[in-house]
TrEMBL record:
GO terms for molecular function: beta-glucuronidase activity; carbohydrate binding. Residues 285-580 form the Glycoside hydrolase family 2 catalytic domain. It is an enzyme of class 3 (hydrolase). Residues 14-180 form the Glycosyl hydrolases family 2 sugar binding domain. NCBIfam families: PRK10150.1. InterPro entries: Beta-gal/glucu_dom_sf, Galactose-bd-like_sf, GH, Glyco_hydro_2, Glyco_hydro_2_cat, Glyco_hydro_2_CS, Glyco_hydro_2_N, Ig-like_fold. It comes from the Bacteria. This is Beta-glucuronidase. Coiled coil: none annotated. Residues 183-283 form the Glycoside hydrolase family 2 immunoglobulin-like beta-sandwich domain. Keywords: Glycosidase, Hydrolase.
Amino acid sequence: MLYPQSSSSRAMISLDGFWKFAPDVNDDGEQRGWTHQLPADREIAVPASWNEQYQDLMYFFGTGWYEREVELSRQLRSERIWLRVGSANYLSTVWVNGTEVGRHEGAHLPFVFEITEHVRWDGPNRITIRVDAAIAADRLPPGDVEHEQIVGFKGQYPNNYYDFFPYGGIHRSVTLITTPMSFVSDIRITTGIDGTAGKVKAHVGLSEGFEGACTVSIRGTQCRSSVKVHRDGADGGKAVFDFTVPAARLWCPEDPFLYELEVRLTDEDDHAIDQYVQSFGIRTVSIRGVELLLNGKPVFLTGFGMHEDFPVLGKGISPAVIAKDFNLLNWIGANSVRTSHYPYSDEFLSYADKHGLLVIGETPFVGFVRSHYQGTAILNKAKRVITEMIERDTNHPSIIAWSLANEGDTLAPEADAFYEALYSHAKSLDDTRPITIVNCVDVEKDVALKHYDFVSLNRYHGWYEQAGRLDEGCRILSEKLDRCYEVLGKPVMVTEFGADAVAGVHVDPPEVFSEEYQAEMVTRQYEIIRQKPYTIGAHVWSFADFKTSQTPSRVVVNRKGVFTRDRQPKLSAHKLKALWGGESR
Ligand code: GCB
């Protein structure tokens, strides 16, 4: 389903704001009739995690119920009505006026259910959403894992198997959307370059039973084409268009120009039925030898791994935080980020499109262990998530690569076939972007990296290894990078390197946890990585401090941010700005 848009044929009603909320401590809300009435004594904000809104919910990782009412205008009566949730962690069930309308598994991607038949036009509609946020081994990302290999997570609280807080709740906007009875259900745009011209291919999906004309144009150009669509015709509900845009403005960080593709459906008497406008950029991404090319020119990715994380909001989306983060990325001189460790909001990616940020889009597969590769249950679930992610994000020019996993166990023999299957699944859906996975183990014994287009490494020499011995850490990092290239012969991206620094702690000569140590480490190691002829990028871990589980190695939050959790610069931010040529604003 396309991102919500209001147009001459579509309306949108935001359901963001306060909802009634009840934690379902015994997980028996349904038996107790909560789909008909929530015994809620508190109100909670949507979108936002529930954890930081009430003290007693901070460590609540069970099931939470949300309820609110909405009345709809009679003018919408002839339309189809859909309920869209931008994301909720983790298992969601939705009822409208007491009738279940759908379920969705997964924490970081949207879901939409048609509710036309269940809507009342003579009074308020009750929307109920049950969100089960339990931490479990078969969820993505997994928690509470029986692990053969201990990677430092044993005994942390809560017991998720990854280094960020497992916030629960509705994290992105809830929206009611209307469409006409027949509507544009999907648009998929791919682009190429031929001399100075842009090649644009658009696949348009049409709802079942549509009969009439589908007209596509690219605004501001002469590109326009129309096809007749016949009910039950051979086109199978799809129309494909090919355009050439002469003297195309290519999308790139310096000129993130967006074109707009407009799709119009009209009936046989030429009456307008539906209209949708999809923005896109004309650009190509490829790997040539050891180079990453954007529009045929080499590009080096400088920036961060980051998290969707902010005080009080938890993982809840906030346009203000997105604006602030982009401002800081620009200030410091970063050109790229990885959406570690899950797909970010549509809103973040649209902002990246407009502001020319290069993005590696990552799945929520962090911390797979050997048992996940056995059988097909996790593999099939993972493929479904990849499909959802690529279908949602494919039109974003800012996404220049996919990362299909972070730090899974890639030493286990079973990892070979598992990661190969993930790669070919993703490639079959999108062959226009390079694909990687992120490694944290010995590359010589890794069985999965060979399947991928470039190698991504998380390396903490001078922190988890050689702690306090920065000279040695830098020397070993340099040697290990060379060895990685020797072994795999593919371009290398260092997706994480960094050190914790508690803002305000100063030690000279530099020691671990001081601002000086972090600043020296990230600047020296960035330069080492940058100078290698086979590297395509260096991302410091992390952009900002973020909330995670409690464990002796974390000082309340993970302090590897070069900005604090509330986005104030540490010493390392100033040093990186000088190194990267950031701009003052
Ligand atoms: C990693 C993980 C990241 C952690 C980071 C750390 O390798 O990919 O999620 O937060 O290390 O700080 O330990």
